[in-house]
Amino acid sequence: MADKKKLRVVNNKTPSVDGKGLMQGRSFYTDDLAAPNSLVIKMLRSPHAFAHIKSIDVSEAQKLNGVALVLTYKDVPHVSFSRAGQGYPEPSPHDKFILDEYVRYVGDEVAMVAAIDEEVAEEALKLIKVEYEVLDPVLDFETAYENKSVIHPEDGIKEMFPIGFDPKKNVAASYEMEVGDVEKELRKSDVVVEETFYTQAQAHAMLETHSSNARLDEHNRLVIYSSTQTPFHMRRIMATTLGMPVSQIRFIKPRVGGGFGGKQAFHGEFFCALTTLRTGRPSRFVYTREEVFGASYTRHPMKISLKIGAMKDGRINAIDCRSLSDTGAYGEHALTVFMIVGSKVLPLYNKVDAVRFGGRVVYTNHVPAGAYRGYGAIQGNYALESTIDVLSEKLGMDPKRVREINSMKEKETSPIFEIMGEGTKGTAMIMESCKLPYCISRGAELIDWKNNYPRKVINDHKVRGYGMAIAMQGSGIPFIDMGSASIKLNDGGSYMVTVGATDIGQGSDTIISQIVAEELQTTVDKVLIYSSDTDLTPFDCGAYASSTTYVSGNAAWKAAQKMRARLIKEASQYLNVKEDEVEFDGTTFTAKDKSVTLNDLSIQWLYNKDLHQVSVTESYYGHVSPPPFMAAYAEVEVDLETGEYEVVNYVTVTDCGTTINPMLARGQVEGGVVQGLGMACFEAVKYDKKGNLLSNNFLNYHIPTHKEIYKLTTEFADSYEPTGPFGAKSVGEIGIDTPPAVICNAIYNATGVRVHSLPITPEKILKGLKELKK
Amino acid sequence: MKVNEYYRASSLEDAYSKLQQSPKNVLLGGGLWLKKTAQSYDALIDLSCCELDKISETKEEVIVGSMVTQRDFENSPVVKSLFSDALAYSVREIMGVNFRNLATIGGSIMGRYPFSDVIAGLLPYDVSLEFYPKETMSLEDYLNFKGKKNSILVAVHIKKGSGKGYYKKAKTTALDFPIVNIAVSKVNNEYRIAVGARPMVGALAKEAMKYINSVSSPKKEDFEKAAELAVKELQFLDNKDSSAEYRYDLAKVYVRRGLEEVSK
Amino acid sequence: MKVSFYLNDVLVSYDVKPHEYLAATLRRNGVKSIKVGCNESSCGSCTLLIENKPVMSCSVLTASVEGKHITTVEGIQEEAAKLSRCFSNEGADQCGFCNVGYALVCYALKKEYKNPTDEEIINYIVGNLCRCSGLYSQLKAIKAYLKEE
After folding, report:
1. N or C: which end of chain B has fewer CB within 10 A?
2. What is the pLDDT of residues A552-606, one digit of tens each?
3. Which class does domain C76-147 fall in?
């Protein structure tokens, strides 16, 4: 184990490597880099929730001055694929075509126009004549299974391996598992509680809308700039779908203005590619905010029913979880999100004798659902952690105590880890680092649980309620997610690091620089980092599944270790001593009375003696996925006359191993917490009865502003994960998991009203209060 | 939005004659909502040469030019001094400073937007609108006026008086439209109650006002009764942000709290 | 139509359509520091200063700024660097897309108020959305920036 006290760069405050440049307005986001005079791409979108295109006439649009290309389903390869942006083979069904003769939600793509400017492109859209056969949409996911409206009746769609795909029944995926005998254990239990919860669709609302642009380079290769989390997956999927060799496509990911899972998938990239390939001209496609809301994807809405059985002393015997998930029009991440409802939630209570999980993911005619930070975990956590409070009340115990007795501890495991992975079987693992007990007790101190729980009366109509929940995540997908890093030595003794790891604003460029600087005993300003570009950087699966710090960070650490060993070896040759006699302090190699500086050597190797480039490349994939853990507490002030409430303080204590960058780690936790609070309190994707999206802008889809966030108290446990880089685990997703359950529990403790559907609005609380009075 | 001509009017007269030339000519206020209309216009008429962006006062009233921005309105010491800062406060609740530096008081009123904080905030006061060509109309009459007004709003006249005001915007987040907005005043010993965003545009609760003004030194029960009357006489409807029932409940609580507040 | 104005104190002239908005004009002419997050005056990313007042440039018609003084982040580079330092100290910087808007709105706030209260600060910056930071650290950073000389 590395001694954390001796760390000089890692676990120390380091400003983001790109922070200053971005604040000063340097232009390095995707659309800033579009080629001048790019054709502008606009999309004709479906006005119907479900329809078949009977005829489509684009002749008038094509004739319009300034229009370069119009595409319909007749003009594009008819190859099914998944937009999900996952590894190969994907656990998501291949149920999407670039353009199709069916449209499956209001906003689905009908036809594309590329024109010299936006005005002409929009004019051309109006000239496209489409005759639709309108079909009966499925807009309630509880009626989707075996509905007479089949959303994917077409041929040519498929699963890549068994995921329970059954499109004729509107099923995108399904899953069942059981450990032990749940029915028997429930019968044995002194107390059984049963609750059902509903979670809503949530929008990512990253500030940079989806953008991409394309051009041909001097070799006539296709170069695509994309605001993406997964450049390497994109290159592979695009090559396969368009029938091109991978070698003819280059994806470049510049600065990305937020992703949160929303940029794991394809959005406009295919249309830029086709436009540029067919016209030879550069093109750009920037989604409007309305398109981001209405034509990208959301979090999967779910219905989750839980049964928990426990003994009088508080020991939980069995958990039974049934879920139904709404994947909307396409099945991106259908199975993987669904499985996480079980796999990253249920192991929290690992002392059960039996646990069961299962259900279906169904298609509907809503905006598709896809990857979103904390996917599956936030839905499962809301249901499980709310039910734990219901159970605690029935047991007459403090919910904190129930969690202390039953939750995961260090050196323990859960059978679920081996059974459930992401779309496949999982990987057994022991918790080498788990400071959850500390997180629970420290969080309780910070909120003064002893004196405050369950409520405090403020005045005749105001009370404060206190609630808690615990959570876990993972750190990448074992044996599937791979990251790699190359380091080369520059003259002057600085290092160029190239990584495929995808910085989307979370700060991976900074933490990878820190890891490399720490190992090479230098400073971050001597570590130049570039990410990610499929031509120039080594492979990385991309930024998802909380993988970057752990997987890509480990790759960078391995590469830095290799570079260090290489430098010492080469210095020993130069100094003519044995390798183990050389000491390297980051700037000077010393052996007995001889020494040489890295600066001198770096210049000599390039210009004077024994000429060569020193460079190394290393890769890493996880054999386990060590979970970070968290305990969270909230204090909410409720107006009993109106149901309105404020989250006065939100306390989190997180075990993410070593925080590579404590400030960025705080940013990840707090950013996640606030997105989670948005989902808990008010964010909601809303449709009218015909399936038209109502929440299609920031005035109708509300994300938290400075006026809603009062106080966040964020601490980290002292923890060290032996398999992580300098002891680190992931921290990108865990922050988002707890707020729905914590707020639900706090509101209950304040008012006696338990809200079983998200968001927990004042209106629902007041309704509950009125019912209690009856 | 598509526009053929950006017309910088040299005077009110010039602006007015341009406005009459085509039904597709339109006055430019802050331009914020115009952008969302996605219509095409022949000419946008810019009034910035007409000196309508000043706030002045006489002994009896405060006169707010129609092109005064929401930000200048809320920051004006004259406006702040009115009715315990209630008017300035109602505008301060709208979006952020970078929005309120564009949005104008005149634009907010002329649109008669149902969610308008400006309208609901001004309603319980003696407010009249001055138009070009010369015409004066109370704010309430303008709200009830059917059809489109083809003259130019020049200024908003707010009658001074001694007393307090109360404003409450019930909302989801700071950037949200109000779920319902409540404005209550007690000026020169007379109570007035307005409720907006029901989700229809603000209106006065006249029965409730009549009742509460008839009670000498009203107590908590009287305020409660007035609040009850107010929500009964006003119509509330459902939309995606709230049910009618919840709007009704919120309005009842906040009308009562408002009355209690201004009575102090 | 031709519109002339002072961009960071330099007189510029652009040929625009009467319905073109300032954010679009500036980006079209290479001022890519202007970020458009919603294009409907709701997110604040495109904030710039007109006569020192912060406004959302996606909703200002270019024709309406004839003769006016416009400040973008290029005109306040040192202040942006200071704010960036404060963001870093609090862990408030992430994707950066909202940052330029914040730099301008915070700079204007600093010029307009001597010692603003928390309420005044929040009221001033609330029109600038940030989806990454969790906002609380950002507020702390902005307070630190306002205290700097």
Report:
1. C
2. 999 999 999 999 999 999 999 999 999 999 999 999 999 989 999 999 999 999 9
3. mainly alpha
Sorted by where each begins, the domain ranges of chain A are: 37-135+210-286, 302-477+624-773, 482-621
- Closest of B251, B200, B202 to residue B230, by C-alpha: B251
Q: Are B149 and B233 contained in the same domain?
A: no
Instruction: Tell me which CATH code domain A302-477+624-773 carries.
Output: 3.30.365.10
Task: Decide which of 3.40.50.1380, 3.10.20.30, 1.20.1200.10, 3.40.390.10 is the CATH code for C2-74.
Answer: 3.10.20.30
Q: How many domains would you assign to chain B?
A: 3
| Residue A505 contacts C, CB cutoff 8 Å | yes
Residues C120 and A654 sit within 8 Å (Cβ to Cβ): no
Residues of chain A with C-beta less than 8 angstroms from the C-beta of B170: 642, 644
**Can you give the pLDDT at residue A3?**
66
Q: Give mean pLDDT in consecutive 10-residue pieces for chain C, a chain of 149 residues.
A: 98 96 97 96 97 97 97 98 96 95 98 95 96 97 94
Domain A482-621 has CATH 3.30.365.10: yes
Measure the CA–CA gap between A42 and C2, rounded to whole angstroms: 28
Domain regions of chain C by residue span: 2-74, 76-147
Distance, C-alpha A542 to centroid of its chain = 11
Phi and psi at A566, nearest 5°, equal -65, -45
Angle in degrees, CA B231, B236, B237, rounded to 5: 165
Q: Give the mean pLDDT of A750-754.
A: 98
pLDDT bracket for residue B36 (50, 70, 90):
confident
Contact between A93 and A157 under an 8 Å Cβ cutoff? The reply is yes
Among residues B152, B149, B124, B154, the alpha carbon closest in space to that of B139 is found at: B124
Residues B144 and B223 in one domain: no
**For residue A707, pLDDT beyond 90:** yes
| CATH architecture group of domain A37-135+210-286 | Alpha-Beta Complex (3.90)
CB contact under 8 A, A705 and B174: yes
The ipTM assigned to this model is: 0.98
A642 and B174 within 8 Å at the Cβ level: the answer is no
The whole-angstrom separation of Cα A116 and Cα A373 is: 37
pLDDT digits (tens, 9 = 90+) for A652-703: 999 999 999 999 999 999 999 999 999 999 999 999 999 999 999 999 999 9
Provide the Cα torsion A490, A491, A493, A499; round to 10°: -10
Beta-carbon pairs below 8 A across chains B and C: 81
Q: Which of B48, B91, B93, B98 to mutate to test the interface with C (most CBs of C within 10 A)?
A: B98
Q: Do residues B259 and B173 share a domain?
A: yes
CB contact under 8 A, B246 and A707: no
**Domain end call among B128, B159, B190:** B159
B250 touches chain A (CB under 8 A): yes
CATH for B184: 3.30.390.50
DSSP letter string, A78-139:
---B-TT---SS-SS-B-B-SS-SEE-STT-EEEEEEESSHHHHHHHHHT-EEEEEE-----
Which residues in chain C are contacts of A24 at CB distance < 8 A? 33, 73, 77, 80-81, 84, 103
Report which of A321, A320, A328 is spatially closest to residue A304, judged by C-alpha positions. A321
Within 271-310 of A, beta carbons closer than 8 Å to C belong to 288-289
Tell me: do B104 and B84 sit in the same domain. Answer: yes
Looking at chain A, which subunits does it touch, using at least 3 CB pairs closer than 8 Å as the criterion?
Answer: B, C
Contacts of A699 in chain B (CB under 8 A): 175-177
Asked if A682 reaches chain B (Cβ–Cβ under 8 Å), the answer is yes
Contact C126/A at CB under 8 A: yes
Say yes or no for a CB contact (<8 Å) between C123 and B92. yes
Q: Going by C-beta distance under 8 Å and a sequence separation of 6 or more, which residues neighbour residue C119?
A: none
With cut-offs at 50, 70 and 90, classify the pLDDT of residue A541.
very high
